[in-house]
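Re: the 689-residue chain
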Amino acid sequence: MSTSGCTPAHAHTPQEPRWPRHFGAVALAGLLLVGCGGGGETPIEPGAALRATASPGELTAHVRQLLRQRLAARQAGSAVAFDRYATPALAATASAEAVASTAAAPLSSSTLVQEAGIDEADLLKSDGRLVFALDTYSPHPDGTGRLSLQVVRARDDGQLDRLQTLTLPSADPATLAHGLLLASGPRRLLSLSEHLAPIAAPQPCSPLLPCIAADPMIFAPWAMRASVQVQAVDYTADGAATLGTRLTIDGRLVGSRRIGNTVLLVTTHTPQLAVEQLPDTATAAQREAALAALRPADVLPQLRIGDGPAQALVAESDCFLQPGSTSLSTTVTTLVAVDLSSPALARQSRCFLGGTEALYLSPQNLYLATTRSAAPTVLPDGRLRYPEGFVTDIHQFAFDGGAAPRYRASGEVAGHLGWDPLRMAMRMSEFGGDLRVLAFTGSTGWGVPADADGAIAPSPATLTVLREDPSTARLRAVATLPHAQRQQALGKPGEQVYGVRFVGPRAYVVTFRTVDPLYVLDLSNPLDPRQAAALELPGFSDVLVPLGDGLLFGAGRDASTAGTVGGVKLALFDVSDPSNPVVRGTQVLGGRGSFSALDFNLHGMNLLALGSSWRLALPMALVDPGNGTVTHALHRFEVGGAPISLRVSAPALDAPSSLSPWDLSADRSVQIGSTVVWLTQGRLLSTLW
């Protein structure tokens, strides 16, 4: 379960249930961002571009000045922290990339990704022959939050050969699994996880530090040590796996991507500085002495190789400042390019002073986004309120899987990228060298559909097209939608955006309040984006997956004409004619309270393309509207036929009765030939399609 920097004194263990977004996790995330210091940031001036450090000591001099300003703000009565603690996000995904078959391997599915050719970490991976599963549930004798790597082979008869279970080293009590990445050449994979360990006593819950569990105590961000662990595992064709190089990086993991054999890690590190640990009774001279002793190593994240000593992850000369920013945050964002073909995991790093909340990687460029003002507050009725003038900064780095990322430009858009950190990346897309961003630009909204009841009109949405100006290192807005000539809003009054998917020169946007309008945006002329069409049907889709051949798959919730949310709804749209989208089929499963693995993570659905047809596998927890019982199973669907349709492919594969029916947070599946492998709560199940 992802947290935002505030951790309950009795945090959930990997074996405890993890609740889906629509049961309130989103609203809690908003509370955490507020409670962990987001409200202390000061809006920055437009055009806060990055600038490389020009001389030794410039970084620490800049941080010293920030710390003096922080002290003055606290002495003036400020009661909040100044650093935003980013939520660690699993890879945001929503489209399909099938693995091509070879003479020796059957056709198999791969992790769903946002951009073809750019892999994203997931709990279940396959090389087309072997299946690797990251187990976050099975108990360990020592009681620590260690992870296990399960290695199996899928057989043609639908059974599994269980080859090995490898325990991954960890000494920290709380472990968050982010997933696996497979090398494209050598038989090597990386396990990515985040580790939290208390370094101070917990504190009572308060409005500043709200609890996220039924517990009166909480660990504040400054009472926790966070680190990212990168564990290499080498394996043979027979599935024999051995531990390789292990890297431990200070901070939290924002996200990861793989191009070829280069893995890009984006982390944030908020240093715990000696001057801020001094008691309130410290004299001005004592504080100045602590500031004078500040070194780059105190500010920048460090690296450990295996059990070796800490060393510098990045040099001061490889870091950037934001001279136009008036934020008092000392958070450092680090970009680490790791060479998967190197047994020692050779790496190159860059950093900049400032936080990051979301990353998007195109085949040519990396974009990092962060909001420059306070996080939303959660109102008593569950709705969210955002400060007026909310702005998102975006930094562009050139990166194609080769050398370390190279800074190019910065820009900003009005609004924010939504309430769900897992879906923020889907609000950005590059096409033809332009970055398209869909942001909320109002001040009110809601985090979960149920909170829409009786709410005032939520935040309107605005599409902004940004284009790099190399002469000024700026991302400049060249178009927006709506605008003076095209004033039609993206969503009717009272609706809020849920699903967003960019596909080449088009974008698909779903809003919801009582019915589900699917908007088709024509972005073929980046200087004049426009709405091409809108299609209405009950419910909403918060996940959109382009299948190919002009077909778009949507997953979300059914709803009544009054907006009452019902069971899980799947929809197939024909968008081959952008001016006339058509529904080709729908499926509604379960009653109110039902949910799917997509409510936890966008990797929850499995998709395999078979020529002009597709197979989809999706774990669900369905509530019987008659008796309220819950059934946990893997459901299978097919898209295809003449006429094209969405239909149930085979009876659902039920989970063992010993498992919790409410926890789909780590449910994943993969198809290898005619065999389906399902990972649920640490167990691997299989069947023939």
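The chain has one domain: 7-688.
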